[in-house]
Amino acid sequence: MVWMLRHIPSTGANRTLTSLSHGTMANAMPQALGAQKAFPERQVIALSGDGGLAMLLGDLLTTIQEKLPIKVVVFNNSSLNFVELEMKVEGLLDSYTNLVNPDFSKVAEAIGLWSHRVEKPEDLEAAVQTFLSIPGPALLDVVTNQYELVMPPDIHTSQVAHMALYTAKGLIDGRAKDITNLFDNIIRK
């Protein structure tokens, strides 16, 4: 949701739909299916986290069953990343947020969708162009950096203090590598 809101402007020629209330998860596919049924002449693209898609893998079957030509992009970082970030910003150690994902492109192919997996950033642009040109439903499984942060426009002192608390707890818990990776991503920004 956050990546879409930051990087895909609603221009009038395109529209965005998301759920921003109640901590919803796994809403990309159901919304895409409904939008495609309601507007069959429009191209519908679902931007889904890996956790959300995993929760509703059956929706890929619905895509084929109902002959809905939606495009599905999976942000595959092997974690419930936004939940993890919310925990860290509160000074908590993240728990049960890591995911052991299948190769979503192989799952989609087995179901009958055109699919492709992108593991290197330099391959993304060509993959997206091909993905969008495919007639019918398609899935693009994009492996992303688990430590990439969605930085808010305003950072508050309490957030910095809680991240410092998370860092201290993480070091005590033996998570030095995770903390190093996290701060490497902050520094690169």
Describe this structure in words.
With 189 residues, the protein is α/β, with parallel strands linked by helices. The protein has one domain: Thiamin diphosphate (ThDP)-binding fold, Pyr/PP domains (Rossmann fold, 3-Layer(aba) Sandwich), CATH 3.40.50.970. The chain contains 9 helices and 4 strands, in the order ααβααβααβαβαα. It has helices at 2-7, 28-38, 50-55, 58-65, 81-89, 104-111, 124-133, 157-172, 176-188, and strands at 45-49, 71-76, 114-118, 138-143. A 4-stranded parallel β-sheet has the order 1-2-4-3, sandwiched between helices. β3, α7 and β4 (138-143) form a beta-alpha-beta unit. The longest helix has 16 residues, at 157-172. The radius of gyration is 18 Å and the shape is elongated. The model has no long low-confidence stretch (mean pLDDT 89).
The oligomeric status of these chains comes to: single chain
Mean pLDDT value: 89
CATH architecture annotation: 3-Layer(aba) Sandwich
Number of domains as seen in the coordinates: 1
What percent of residues adopt helix (DSSP H or I)? 40-55%
Q: How many strands, which pairing sense, and closed or not: the largest β-sheet?
A: 4 strands, parallel
Total helical elements: 9
CATH class: Alpha Beta
Supply the CATH superfamily name.
Thiamin diphosphate (ThDP)-binding fold, Pyr/PP domains
Strand tally = 4
First CA to last CA: what distance?
A: 20 Å
Parts with pLDDT < 50 across at least 5 consecutive residues: none
Widest sheet: strand ordering: 1-2-4-3
Q: Please trace the helix and strand order, writing H or E for each element.
A: HHEHHEHHEHEHH
Please state the structural category. alpha/beta
